[in-house]
C-alpha cells in the first residue's frame, strides 16, 4: 500500500512540473483530490470543486462540461484523451490543454491534467510533458513520427527492453523486433485505428529484448497530431510489461487443459457439484451410468437421481467436509438411471476452496459397483446352496449307514430262512416247504415295506429345523434383489395368515428365493409386476402361495415337464431350467409337495404344502 501511495505522489509531482493543475477523479466522476502548482492562478478555486462530481459544476464551468463524457470513455477504454480549451482570465485570453490520463495505479481513479499553453506554441503541445509521469507509473513511452518515419522511446521503455539510445531509431527498427506472428496483428490493429475504423489502438505482442529473449507487452496508443487533410502525423502511446501475466495465463491454460483431459477422458465417472446440490459439470461416464445426456443432468439436482433410501446418507460427512474435519470421504451410494435401473456406486467426494478460503464446489468420483454387487449377491446365494447340499450330503451318508445296518439285520433272517429250506432236501415235503417259503416271503415283504417307510423318515430326521418367519425371509430376499425390484417397479403384497413355520431355514430361503426371482425374471415389460405372497393353515396343514401376473406357462404344452430338470418355457432369458427342479426336490425331501396353476400371459401361482 505504501508503494502505491509513493507512486501516486511521484506521478502527481512529475505532472505538476509542467502543468497548472492535476485532478484525481473517481469512477463515479467525483473529484477526490486537486493539486495545483505553486503560484497557479487556479489555486484559489480548489474548494469550489473538491469532493463534487464533475457534472455538478459543469453548468458553471465549460472546462468540466467538456470533460464529463470524456472521463467516462477513458474509464471504459483505458485510453488517454486530449482537448484544448480557451478562456479569459484577467481580461486576457488563455489556452489550456486538458489531458485525461488513466495512468493512476488504482484502476478506479484517473488524472485530469490542465496545462497553460500561454508559453507554448500549438506544435509544442505534442511534446507531452507527461512522459515522465508515464515512466513513474511503470510504463514505457513511445512517440512515433509518421511523417519522417522516426520513433522515440522513453528511458523507462529502454529499461524494460534493454536497448540504448540510437539502437531503435526508425519505425522499421521497431517492427523488426516484433515477433513475426504478432507483427501482422499489431499492424492490422494500428491501421484500423489510424484509418478511423477502430476507436482505440490496443494490442498484445511479443517484443524481442536486447538479450535475445521475447517479452509480452501491451501496446496502446493515440493520435495526437494530424495535418490539414486529416492524416495522422504523430502517434504516441505506452508499452506495458505483461510478460508475467501472460506466462501465468499460459500455465493456467495448460492446467485447465490437463484437468479437462483428466476429467473428460477418465475411466471413472467424474462430476463437479455445486454447494446447493446442482450438477455443474459431468463427464461421459456419468452420462452413460445414469443414461441421461449432459444437458439433462445439468438441469437436475443430485437428489433427482439418487436412490430414495440413500438421499441423506452422507449429510453428516458433507458437514465434516465443510468444517474441514476431513479432507474427503468415500461411501457406497445408489443412483437411479433414466430407465429406473438402480446403479450401485463407490462415491468419493472432496471439497474445493477458493483463495478467500470459501467453499467453492464438490469434486465427485463415481465408480460403478453394480456388477460387483450382483456378483457378491450371486456368490452368497451359491454359498447357501452349496452349504445346503453339503449338509444334505453328510446327513444322507450318515443316514444310509444306519439304513444299511437295518437292512442287514431285518432282511438277513427271512432271506436266510428261504435259503435254508431250499437246501434241506428230503427233510420237508413240498407242501411244508412251500408253506414255509410263503411265510418267509411275507415276512420279507413286510420288512421291505417297513424299511421304505423308515427310509423316508430316516433320510430327513437329522436335518435341523428352525423357527422361520415368512416376513423376515421375504424381506431379506427383497433386499438382495432390491436393484431389479426397483427398476421393474415390483409391488410385493403380503397376506400372511401364518407368520412362523418350523422348517429348515436354509430350505425355506432357497424355495422362496427361486419362486420370487422367477416371478421377477418372467415379468411382462409393459405391465407393472405384482407378487402376492400368502400363507394359510388348512386342517393343520400349512400352505404357501407365491402368485404373480407375469408371462405365465403354457400348461397344455408343459404340464408334465414343469418341475423336471433342464426345462425352459420362455426363450431369450438367462435360464437353465434348474430352479424349479431344485425347489421341488427340497420340498419333497421334507415330505411336502409343490403344485402350479398358470395361464400364458396371465401369470402363475405356485402352492407349497409343507
TrEMBL record:
<dbReference type="InterPro" id="IPR035965">
    <property type="entry name" value="PAS-like_dom_sf"/>
</dbReference>
<feature type="domain" description="PAC">
    <location>
        <begin position="201"/>
        <end position="254"/>
    </location>
</feature>
<dbReference type="InterPro" id="IPR000014">
    <property type="entry name" value="PAS"/>
</dbReference>
<dbReference type="InterPro" id="IPR000700">
    <property type="entry name" value="PAS-assoc_C"/>
</dbReference>
<keyword id="KW-0418">Kinase</keyword>
<dbReference type="GO" id="GO:0004673">
    <property type="term" value="F:protein histidine kinase activity"/>
</dbReference>
<feature type="domain" description="PAS">
    <location>
        <begin position="126"/>
        <end position="197"/>
    </location>
</feature>
<dbReference type="InterPro" id="IPR013655">
    <property type="entry name" value="PAS_fold_3"/>
</dbReference>
<dbReference type="InterPro" id="IPR052162">
    <property type="entry name" value="Sensor_kinase/Photoreceptor"/>
</dbReference>
<protein>
    <recommendedName>
        <fullName>histidine kinase</fullName>
        <ecNumber>2.7.13.3</ecNumber>
    </recommendedName>
</protein>
<feature type="domain" description="PAC">
    <location>
        <begin position="329"/>
        <end position="381"/>
    </location>
</feature>
<feature type="domain" description="Histidine kinase">
    <location>
        <begin position="406"/>
        <end position="610"/>
    </location>
</feature>
<dbReference type="InterPro" id="IPR004358">
    <property type="entry name" value="Sig_transdc_His_kin-like_C"/>
</dbReference>
<dbReference type="InterPro" id="IPR036890">
    <property type="entry name" value="HATPase_C_sf"/>
</dbReference>
<dbReference type="Pfam" id="PF08447">
    <property type="entry name" value="PAS_3"/>
</dbReference>
<dbReference type="InterPro" id="IPR005467">
    <property type="entry name" value="His_kinase_dom"/>
</dbReference>
<keyword id="KW-0808">Transferase</keyword>
<dbReference type="Pfam" id="PF02518">
    <property type="entry name" value="HATPase_c"/>
</dbReference>
<dbReference type="InterPro" id="IPR003594">
    <property type="entry name" value="HATPase_dom"/>
</dbReference>
<dbReference type="InterPro" id="IPR001610">
    <property type="entry name" value="PAC"/>
</dbReference>
<keyword id="KW-0597">Phosphoprotein</keyword>
Amino acid at each position: 500500500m505504501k508503494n502505491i501511495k509513493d507512486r501516486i505522489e511521484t506521478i502527481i509531482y512529475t505532472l505538476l512540473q509542467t502543468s497548472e493543475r492535476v485532478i484525481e477523479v473517481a469512477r463515479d466522476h467525483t473529484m477526490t483530490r486537486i493539486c495545483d502548482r505553486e503560484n497557479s492562478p487556479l489555486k484559489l478555486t480548489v474548494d469550489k470543486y473538491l469532493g463534487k462530481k464533475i457534472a455538478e459544476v459543469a453548468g458553471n464551468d465549460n472546462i468540466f462540461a467538456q470533460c464529463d463524457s470524456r472521463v467516462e470513455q477513458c474509464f471504459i477504454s483505458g485510453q488517454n484523451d486530449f482537448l484544448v480549451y480557451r478562456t479569459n482570465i484577467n481580461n486576457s485570453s488563455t489556452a489550456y490543454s486538458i489531458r485525461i490520463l488513466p495512468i493512476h495505479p488504482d484502476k478506479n481513479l484517473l488524472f485530469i491534467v490542465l496545462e497553460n499553453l500561454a508559453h507554448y506554441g500549438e506544435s509544442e503541445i505534442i511534446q507531452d510533458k507527461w512522459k515522465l509521469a508515464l515512466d513513474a507509473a511503470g510504463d514505457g513511452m513511445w512517440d512515433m513520427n509518421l511523417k519522417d518515419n522516426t520513433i522515440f522511446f522513453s528511458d523507462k521503455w529502454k529499461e524494460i527492453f534493454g536497448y540504448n539510445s540510437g539502437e531503435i531509431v526508425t519505425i522499421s527498427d521497431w517492427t523488426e523486433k516484433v515477433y513475426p506472428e504478432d507483427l501482422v496483428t499489431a499492424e492490422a490493429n494500428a491501421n484500423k485505428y489510424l484509418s478511423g475504423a477502430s476507436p482505440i489502438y490496443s494490442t498484445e505482442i511479443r517484443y524481442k529484448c536486447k538479450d535475445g529473449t521475447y517479452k509480452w507487452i501491451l501496446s496502446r496508443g493515440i493520435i495526437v497530431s494530424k495535418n490539414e487533410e486529416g492524416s495522422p502525423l504523430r502517434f504516441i502511446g505506452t508499452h506495458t510489461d505483461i510478460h508475467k501475466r501472460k506466462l501465468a495465463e499460459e500455465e493456467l491454460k495448460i492446467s485447465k487443459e490437463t484437468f479437462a483431459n483428466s476429467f473428460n477422458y477418465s475411466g471413472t465417472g467424474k462430476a463437479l457439484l455445486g454447494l446447493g446440490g446442482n450438477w455443474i459439470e459431468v463427464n461421459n461416464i456419468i452420462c452413460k451410468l445414469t443414461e441421461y445426456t449432459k444437458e439433462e443432468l445439468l438441469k437436475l439436482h443430485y437428489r433427482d437421481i439418487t436412490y430414495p433410501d440413500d438421499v441423506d446418507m452422507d449429510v453428516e460427512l458433507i458437514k465434516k467436509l465443510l468444517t474441514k474435519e476431513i479432507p474427503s470421504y468415500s461411501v457406497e451410494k445408489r443412483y437411479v438411471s433414466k430407465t429406473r435401473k438402480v446403479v450401485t456406486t463407490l462415491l468419493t467426494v472432496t471439497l474445493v476452496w477458493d483463495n478467500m478460503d470459501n467453499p467453492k464446489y464438490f469434486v465427485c468420483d463415481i465408480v460403478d459397483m453394480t456388477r460387483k454387487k450382483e456378483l457378491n449377491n450371486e456368490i452368497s446365494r451359491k454359498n447357501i446352496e452349496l452349504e445346503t447340499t453339503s449338509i444334505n450330503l453328510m446327513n444322507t451318508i450318515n443316514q444310509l449307514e444306519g439304513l444299511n445296518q437295518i437292512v442287514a439285520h431285518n432282511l438277513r433272517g427271512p432271506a436266510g430262512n428261504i435259503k435254508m429250506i431250499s437246501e434241506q432236501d428230503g427233510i420237508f415235503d413240498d407242501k411244508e416247504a412251500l408253506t414255509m417259503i410263503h411265510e418267509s416271503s411275507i415276512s420279507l415283504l413286510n420288512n421291505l415295506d417297513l424299511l421304505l417307510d423308515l427310509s423316508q423318515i430316516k433320510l430327513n430326521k437329522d436335518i435341523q429345523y428352525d423357527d422361520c418367519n415368512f416376513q423376515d425371509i421375504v424381506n431379506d430376499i427383497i433386499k438382495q434383489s432390491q436393484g431389479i425390484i426397483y427398476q421393474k417397479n415390483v409391488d410385493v403384497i403380503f397376506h400372511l395368515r401364518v407368520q412362523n413355520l418350523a422348517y429348515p431355514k436354509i430350505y425355506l430361503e432357497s424355495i422362496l428365493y427361486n419362486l420370487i426371482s422367477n416371478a421377477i425374471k418372467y415379468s411382462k415389460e409393459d405391465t407393472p409386476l405384482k407378487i402376492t405372497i400368502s400363507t394359510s393353515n388348512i386342517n393343520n396343514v400349512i400352505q404357501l402361495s407365491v402368485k404373480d401376473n407375469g408371462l405365465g406357462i403354457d400348461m397344455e404344452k408343459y404340464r408334465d415337464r414343469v418341475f423336471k430338470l433342464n426345462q425352459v418355457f420362455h426363450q431369450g432369458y438367462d435360464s437353465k431350467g434348474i430352479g424349479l427342479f431344485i425347489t421341488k426336490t427340497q420340498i419333497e425331501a421334507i415330505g411336502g409337495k409343490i403344485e402350479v396353476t398358470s395361464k400364458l400371459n396371465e401369470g402363475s401361482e405356485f402352492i407349497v404344502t409343507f
